[in-house]
């Protein structure tokens, strides 16, 4: 199974493509869609959608996993994040890919072992779990963590599955 994993945000959307072979997960590619502060929100959304379409065309994933919305106290932040999530979800949906959503706490719990882990801890564990030579940027590491969570959740033989499903 090959999964496109996304950590959506207006200015820095992390993405990753991972593959499960046997009992191991492998990172195929990852990156961050960076939008300059000078861009209008509409331009950022178009850039996110275009970049995700390109990743789908390049890597041919079987499914998509995305980090779900976190609780935010500021309604403008919530609306902006919702728009970024929509821009990231539409291309996989258009491609006919099933899209699974995972709350940030569940992703952190699955990868680090505790739901309140910080970005540096997530990046460190992603590097270790996937045996990467370098630590990915935080937003890409978050997307890789979403992908790991999805791959482990989808494999009933994984020792993580029971723990991840309980969260």
Précis, in short:
With 167 residues, the chain is an alpha/beta fold. The protein is 50% helix and 22% strand. It has helices at 41-59, 75-94, 104-111, 119-130, 138-154, 159-166, and strands at 2-7, 12-21, 24-34, 63-67, 99-102.
Number of helices: 6
Query: Please, what is the CATH homologous superfamily?
Result: Ribonuclease H-like superfamily/Ribonuclease H
Q: Which stretches are low in confidence, meaning pLDDT under 50 for 5 or more residues running?
A: 160-167
SS class: alpha/beta
N-to-C SSE string, H for helix and E for strand: EEEHEHEHHHH
What characteristic shape results from the CA principal axes?
globular
Instruction: Kindly state the number of beta strands.
Output: 5
What kind of sheet is the major sheet?
5 strands, mixed
**What is the total number of structural domains?**
1
- The radius of gyration computed from the alpha-carbon positions, rounded to a whole number of angstroms, is 15 Å
The helix fraction, in percent, is: 40-55%
N-to-C CA distance: 23 Å
Q: What is the CATH C level class, in words?
A: Alpha Beta
Structure description:
Helix content is 50%, strand content 22%. With 167 residues, the protein is an alpha/beta fold. Helix 4 (119-130) crosses helix 5 and helix 5 packs across helix 6 (159-166). The longest helix is centred in the middle third of the chain and has 20 residues, at 75-94. The radius of gyration is 15 Å and the shape is globular. The two termini are 23 Å apart.
